[in-house]
């Protein structure tokens, strides 16, 4: 059966598949959500307490802030002295090695007295200590002022400035007051780096024990709150002291709750919350857009949007990376608006924002800002056909988000100097990232099989390969397609259909005629090849332009939506000329109607119905003998009423009001196309000096 045949209702298997995919999406969103529970109280420093009076129900310490604890830790760590173990045998081994090698050095011209100088330097280095390069760099980076050097019996404290790394030890050989006696070049010839070996080894275990002892001396509490003591009352400003008490109270409350049970409650709550949001979305589609649920590609795109943005926001929150305001959430309504419709775009944007808000600590500002940005994006990008439109939308969305978030800051009584400027930077970056919607739109078209207006505009360019071939091989068909496109576009604009879609579909609906152009009236010039064929054979050739067109569409990779126009523009109608001629020629013979019937199917969308009417009206109008208002009106009424009687529009959402509007548009346009001209008067020779009236032909 033709893949464009009438759409079927979802069967049990399809419904089960969609339910399973929906459940998988819910679980995926929940899986990435942070598991750290959100407190029942939300508060900020310098803002009023929004809840009722809070009384301590148990004794708890007032914990110091993280900043204060970090400051005290840094202060006490200045006393930290890491442990190093000295290997005393290294000194004698390296001195002995040098003495052995010096005989060879003398032969190369090194004076004997250099031996004592170098040996003295080696002993000084090893007595002070040489450490590994990594250990030395760590001491410098951590600003360690002294280390502890221990042997089996004792430990001594040595300043860090007195120990050496391999690099500083090598330089030490050249530090002498008697530069005239000890030549630098001769010292270099001694290859002194061969005798530099680390004799201080870092002791990780003892150093960590000392570090723990130092940190244990820090007190993490600065006081106590007793049970029954008032913490804060409604309307009180949260000061720094009160903030620390509240944070300590919430921290202690959390520790008193069974963590395993709390995590279970949190997980169940997240699943219920996400599932209810998904259910509300499904109710919208069940009530208003069932057709999207019947299309696998639409379901897949919607679920992809529902998963990607909440998962991204959850990852940012859980990993404490950038603010969620950096994510271009308005991409989702833009994509859905371009490929579906505005109402669905807003509903889906709301659902996505609610799912993301579940993971946030302060969701109100986020939800409000993103909803406003989404509405602006949907309104400013009702039709995307040029890149400049997306640039304009990104600019409008960014400015709106900045102004709206600024208004929220002002309502919270923030001073200008205390604004969180990072949020505004993130919103600007968000606007820049929104520009990537254009290349991503092409990716979505390829992955999900949608067709955007940008693609339709590109296809409707008459200079592309297929259009140029049609204009050369079948010029009459090309002109017919252009006329049909103009008629159909005018109707689409009047009845709120997709004008660019129907225009592009009209331009390609007859591309199958390229295979046999001479068999179609609009391409003939005096010779009719049908005169040499039987009526059945002629009907077969005429009907074949539908399957030929679909094959050509596959060859040129035309979108499925355009193939739909090719398949449906004649629906299940008949080649009436040959059908009626055959019945008249063989009145007593039973006619096989399938031989004269187009493969169909009938139109399934409003746009396909418009094209069927425009195609039939334009083609039939060429056969009129007199182009009068009455003849044009009668023709339009007769053609479209016959299509209605044949049931051509039963499977598409077009109303009688739409059809009536279409009739009026066709009549007005055809009267404009086939208007009569005023004849020019003839100039009589005897009256050539008389006034000729100078009348112009009317258009």
Q: Count all strands and give the number.
A: 8
- What is the residue-averaged pLDDT? 86
Q: Which sequence of strands runs across the widest sheet? A: 5-4-3-6
Stretches where pLDDT falls below 50 for ≥5 residues? 687-699
Cα-atom Rg, whole angstroms? Answer: 43 Å
Helix content: 55-70%
Q: DSSP strand (E) fraction?
A: under 5%
Count the DSSP helices: 29
Largest sheet: 4 strands, mixed
Structural class: mainly alpha
Alpha-carbon distance between the termini? 49 Å
Your description of this structure?
The strands form three sheets. A four-stranded mixed sheet has the order 5-4-3-6. It has a two-stranded antiparallel sheet with strand order 1-8. The chain has a two-stranded antiparallel ribbon with strand order 2-7. The chain is 58% helix and 4% strand. The chain has 699 residues and is mainly α. Helix 21 crosses helix 27 (606-621). It has helices spanning 12-32, 66-76, 89-107, 113-128, 133-141, 166-172, 184-189, 204-216, 240-256, 259-288, 290-293, 296-318, 331-339, 342-357, 363-380, 387-411, 421-433, 437-448, 453-459, 465-473, 475-494, 499-508, 535-543, 545-555, 560-568, 576-585, 606-621, 629-645, 656-673, and strands spanning 54-55, 60-63, 83-86, 146-150, 155-159, 200-202, 221-225, 230-232.
Supply database-style keywords:
single chain, 699 residues, mainly alpha, four-stranded mixed beta sheet, two-stranded antiparallel sheet, 29 helices, 8 strands, elongated
Topology:
Elements: H1 12-32, E1 54-55, E2 60-63, H2 66-76, E3 83-86, H3 89-107, H4 113-128, H5 133-141, E4 146-150, E5 155-159, H6 166-172, H7 184-189, E6 200-202, H8 204-216, E7 221-225, E8 230-232, H9 240-256, H10 259-288, H11 290-293, H12 296-318, H13 331-339, H14 342-357, H15 363-380, H16 387-411, H17 421-433, H18 437-448, H19 453-459, H20 465-473, H21 475-494, H22 499-508, H23 535-543, H24 545-555, H25 560-568, H26 576-585, H27 606-621, H28 629-645, H29 656-673
Parallel strand pairs: 3-4
Antiparallel strand pairs: 1-8, 2-7, 3-6, 4-5
Helix pairs in contact: 1-10, 1-12, 3-4, 10-14, 12-14, 13-14, 14-15, 15-16, 16-17, 20-21, 21-22, 21-27, 21-29, 22-25, 22-27, 23-26, 24-25, 27-28, 28-29
